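Q: Predict the assembly, please.
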Amino acid sequence: MTDLYALKYTAEHEWVSLSGDPSTGSGQVIATVGITDFAADKLGDVVFVELPGAGSDVTAGDVCGEIESTKSVGELYAPLTGEVVEVNDEVVADPSLVNSAPYAEGWLVKIRVDAAAVAELLDRDAYVALTEGA
Amino acid sequence: MPDPRYTPLRDRHEALGASFTDFGGWAMPVRYTSDLAEHHAVRQAAGLFDISHMAEFLVEGPGSGAFLDYALAGRLSTLPLWKAKYSLVLDATGGIVDDVIVYRLADERFFVVANAGNRQPVAAALAERVAQFLGQSKGDATVLDVTDDYALIAVQGPAALAILADVEGIADLGRALADLPYYAATDASFRTAPLLIGRTGYTGEDGFELYIRAADAGALWDALLVAGEPHGLVPAGLAARDTLRLEAGMPLYGHELSRDIVPAQAGLGRVVVADKEDFVGKAGLAERDVDGAPVLVGLVTEGKRAGRAGYPVFDGETAVGEITSGALSPTLGHPIAMAFVSPDLSAPGTHLTIDVRGTRIPATVTALPFYRRTK
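A: Predicted assembly structure:
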C-alpha cells in the first residue's frame, strides 16, 4: 500500500514520488509521476494514454501527454522540468491500470529533475484541501 | 447556477457509491463503479438506469390526437392504443426543439416524454400550441406537465425480459411482456402503484422503460436490483448510456439535434409527415432550402484516439464538417463518431480525416448504426 503522505502533488492532480538517482549523485533525483485517484475517478475508465518519449525533455506546467476516458480527455502536465528517463509501457498497453492502481502499476513516467525544484510541489494535506474545494 | 435537482432515487445512488454529474440541471449518476463495465453489462446482460430527469407531459381530451398532429412533426392521431412513436417538436422554421417519445394510453390520452434539458422549451411550445389549437376550434385538448410526479427507470439489455418476469410485485399486466413488441407499452401495477411499461430504450438493446409515481420509485428500483442480480444486472450511469446510444447511432439533443438543423439533415426526414394539413414547422420546412446543407454521418477511425464533439472534419485540406459525438467504442474497440459533413461526402466508404487536437487521423464514413444487436 502506497503511503500517500510520502508523495508530492500538483494542482493538476499528478502525484510525484521522489527517489535518488544513483547514476549521478549530482543533486538530481528521479521523479515518478502518475495521476491521483481523484483525477482517475473524475475521468472515468481510462481507455487511452499518450506519454512523452523516453529521452525527451519536459517543462514544468506544460502539457506532455494525454489521458482519455470514454467520456473525456485529460491532459498530462509535467509536474517538474527534466528529462524523461522511462515511460510505463504497461500502462500504454493497458490504460485501465490508471483506474485500478493509480499509485502503483498505473504510474506514467519517470523524469530526472533537479532536487531543488521539488519544493514547488504540494504536500498531501495541501492537495487534499484542494480537491475538497473542487 | 441554481442548485441541481435530484431524482427520487438519490439515496439509492449515494448508497451505491455513484459519482454524480450535472445533466440538464439535474445531478445524475454518471457511473457507479466503472462506465466500461456498465456498458458491457448492458450489451451482455442488463443495466438499470435512473432516467427520472426526463420530462413527461400528459395530453388529454377529445382533440388530443389532432392537437399532437398540429404540435409535433409526426401523425399521432392514428397511433394505435398502447403503441409508442418517436417524434419531433419543431419550431416555426423547421428547426428541432426536441425529440420525444409519445405513448397512446387511451383514445383521448397521450403521454409525451421529452429530454430533461428541454423541459421548459417543450412545455412552452406545447402551451403556446394548445392555445393556438383551441383558438382554431378544432377540438379540446389539455397539456399537463407531470415531470415531477413520475420517476422513470430503464432496464436495458438481453436479460431485461427475464429480469422483469422475476420482479416480485409487478402484476396486472395489460399485456404479457414477452408479447410486447418494440415501441409498444402496457399498463401494470407494482404492489399498489400504477405502472406504465414501454418496450423502448436508448441503448440499442432490448429493454423496457418503467414509469412510476415518484413515491414508489425507490421500492421498484430495489425490487429490480434484487430480481436482476442473478441475471447480471448492474446499475448503470449516464457515461455508459452515452456510449451505448452512440454505438446504436441514436441522436442526443444538443449534439446531433438542435434548432439549427432540420430533421432531414439528421436522417430523420421519415419522422416528418409533410402532407399533414397543418403543423408547426410545416411552412418553415417548405421554405427552407436544405440542398447542400450538412448531413449526419457515422465515422470510424483506427487506433484508440477518439474524435470528440466540436472537432473538425477535413477532406484533404478543406474543412467539411464537425463531429457532434465521439468516443472509443467499448463494444467495437475502435473510435466512432457522428458528424455533420457536406452531403457529397456522406456516402459510406468516403475517406476523410478528423483533427484530434492537432493530429490528423484518417476516418471513413460508415452507415449508422455502428452497432446492431443480433436477433
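Chain B touches chain A through 19 residues (CB under 8 Å). Residues 1-288 of chain B form a domain with the Gyrase A; domain 2 fold (CATH 3.30.1360.120).
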